[in-house]
Structure prediction request, 389 residues.
Amino acid sequence: MGLAGRDVISVFDLSNVEIEQLMDLADEMEKFSRGITDVCGGRVMAALFYEPSTRTRFSFEAAMQRLGGGAITCAEAGTTSAAKGETLADTVRIVECYADVIVIRHPLEGSAALAAEYARVPVINGGDGAHEHPTQTLLDLYTLRKEHGAIKGARVLLVGDLKYGRAARSFAYGLARFGADIVCVAPPGLEMDAQMARRLAQLGSPVRQYPSMEAVAADDELRTAFTGARGGKRDVMAVFDAIYVTRVQKERFPSAQAFEAVKSSYAITMEVLKRTRSDTLIMHPLPRVDELDYGIDADPRATYFRQAGYGVPMRMALLAAVLGKAARPVADPAWRGRALEAAAWEGKCSNPRCVSTNERYVTPRFVRDADLNQVVCAYCERPVEGAQA
Ligand code: CP
Prediction:
């Protein structure tokens, strides 16, 4: 089954073959990313953004316009009839009357899945709460392939908020699926949850998580694993092909106090850069707060602005593919979709940030995730404690 007409809610909605095909298509789209083509002439994309965005919304809009199509856009829920009490389900059933594809960003986890349930046009997740940001992952993988040369075998240090960071979560899954070697740094309290750790292990990337970059450098076992016994006291920071940094996601914290306790606990400075190789990529989904020192911006290793730029050709490729307009269809004949079966479970999702616990008309649904052997909420994918898989 091809990608035309499909929703993209999670990185797991795309097979590796499809992701590679999308990256190849993005290579072809690059020549139009400062010009225009008519690949999607006459088509309209709706950008339904209920949370702030610079890169995702603008690059999707630019992508659609560079493809010769049009964009209708909402940058704030308060400017739509959501402010009068219109539900998300009704909103997407209206917006699909005006657009051929919907890109949605929303603070609630599972909101993009809910939108896809109600919309008959393809829905693309532009970020749903702390859950996923699959199109960011596409451009992040594309950046790694383009600037490092390969994803498989790449050694990537993920630094930042692994608890609330949807970009880091989706990217970690993408990296693991393509056989990259991941080491994680998360300040105490912002470590990845058990489900993410299980999923990464199941993907063949057992979690190596540290509280700081200093702790990574101090781990002799890791240094030996990466540099060999002959590595001696070589700084392990020099083995990473990419350092992917994320900000602490202030807006997801339960209290200002909890945020204050962990903010500014890590930063990539020129001192850190000196310990890396001359070709190490410093990546960041942006926006940054204080975790990337402005002093490194002029260094060629600072990849983050180029990375944001790749969002246009990558999203051009994705839009053309879901609209069935790509020169070659993006399709993986072996792809059977995600291994999710309906699971019988009476009750509500335990996640207070799940769309199913916040939108009053939603009937909770649960599925069995065969990869994790776990019953999870069909919207936010939070595991259900006590359910028999
Ligand atoms: N990387 C990213 O999602 O940026 P925005 O929040 O500006 O869209």
The radius of gyration is 21 Å. Residues 53-56, 127, 136, 167, 285-287 surround phosphoric acid mono(formamide)ester (CB under 6 Å). The mean pLDDT is 95.
